[in-house]
Amino acid sequence: MPSPVAHFSMGACLWFFLKDRMGPAWQRTRLMRWTLFGLFLLFSILPDFDAVLGLIARDMHRFHNQQSHSIFFGLLASAVLAIGLHPFFPFVSRKKWFAVICLSYQLHLLMDLFTRGRGLRLFWPFTSERIPAPLEFFTGLRWSHGLWSDAHWLTLANELLFSAGLFFICLLASRLRSR
Known about the structure:
Blueprint: H1 4-18, H2 30-45, H3 50-57, H4 60-63, H5 71-85, H6 94-113, H7 152-178
Helix pairs in contact: 1-2, 1-6, 1-7, 2-6, 5-6
């Protein structure tokens, strides 16, 4: 699976393209702008919250990249979070929250799908079959190598290149917008 570097980069890119569509209330104060940015980063890493259980139990294989990495779970989590966030940010509709969270979640799964590894249980609970990567775009983290493995430097280099590409796309879009 890609590290948080790649997933956070995608969250930042989504924020860049969608922040103006979230309503003018987000632009009122610097705190509101940073809050929205933080929420987009959180949404981009949401499926990997199962890794916390893996770290606590010291068994990443058992907990990470299981049911939370399925389309169904992403839809369910998006609906629950959209309903839960609406009272705190009533100026954003539940539909809009759902769309943003769901897009972030599904892009996370897509990135994980294109990573070398054991595949994803995309269609859980209908099947527990893992769908392998059709192409390997990301080298991914290897939890079996340990958290601080030298092997992760290749992953970091791969993801910094990906992040630079996303940054370039955002920069290009910004310049095209200003014209």
